Amino acid sequence: MSSLSGDASSPLHSIGRKPTLAAPLQSLVAMATSLEAREFAQAAHPHSWLLVADNLYDQAKALYERFPTGSMTVRRGDGTVVGKWPSSSRSTFLLAGFSLENAIKAFLVYEHPHWVSNGVLARPLRSHDLVALSERSSLIPWKSQGPAVLARFERGLESWARYPCALTAAETESEHNLPPELWTSYLKLSKAYGRELMKLLRGGWNGPHGISGRFEFHGTYLGAI
Q1: DSSP code, position 34
Q2: Is 84 within a domain?
Q3: How far is residue 107's CA from residue 208's CA, in Å, rounded to a whole number?
């Protein structure tokens, strides 16, 4: 649980918008009123990214700890077992990967407040490349060990963890198991992210359009206290 002090606690308001699905990005930015831009900056606050990351982390952990929930076995034509893993491995992998993505983006928004200004996410935040995203942050921990863990989750998020096949035969991979050593590394990396994000947010954040605030945390976030 966390509590907020400062201007960021102002409630969000729902206001009508004209249909803009076919409008170019420039038009979307131009149509954002100052109130909309402020509400968007509030929604894209680094604390919001942390909350989503923590929620996904909790769900991944709960699912992993309930193994086995059934299993999948792959055999060759002669009956030789090629691989066997819990049927919930794919879902756990997906949740864990998206948790990492949200945590990384919390760091990036904290460092680059203008990336959530004017009612639109800046281009770097639209990427799902975990390694490249992490390299854009100067505050993120595990700079040397993290990329190896992120690369394994990134590969799954872009292919087998989300879809039964990729865009082409050459890019298609079969489902992978989530081995214990990768899971352990994920927990350690998440904990390092959670600890550092709480430290940063306790000190406060000054965002665009007058959004600011500092936080008090109670309990654990991404496994960190």
Answers
A1: H
A2: yes
A3: 16
